[in-house]
Specification:
Elements lengths: L1 E2 L8 E2 L15 E4 L3 H10 L8 E3 L2 E7 L5 E6 L11
Parallel strand pairs: 3-6
Antiparallel strand pairs: 1-2, 4-5, 5-6
């Protein structure tokens, strides 16, 4: 099955026989969302255990695992501060 969020240029494919990875071994799947608070709320309302939102200078994040144990990250990209110094 292929899942493509509305307006997204990326998809997630799930199903048997797609990979030889063990269930629960996938780490670092990152889903960029326009509003991490809304995405987190929707997951929690559907019974998913999601971390509190972690605010970092480069974005806002929340983390959860799917029923197989794979690790997912929700990321809300923050607007760039055009006046900020770059290193």
């Amino acid at each position: 099955m292929q899942l493509t969020p509305p307006g997204s240029a990326c998809s997630v494919a799930i199903g048997k026989g797609l990979t030889d990875m063990a269930s629960g071994s996938q780490r670092g799947i990152q889903v960029v969302v326009p509003d991490v608070e809304d995405a987190r709320r929707r997951l929690v309302e559907n019974g998913v255990e999601v971390t509190e939102i972690d605010d970092m200078p480069w974005g806002r994040f929340a983390f959860f695992r799917d029923p197989d144990g794979n690790a997912w990250t929700l990321q809300q990209i923050l607007p760039r501060n055009e006046n900020a110094e770059t290193s």
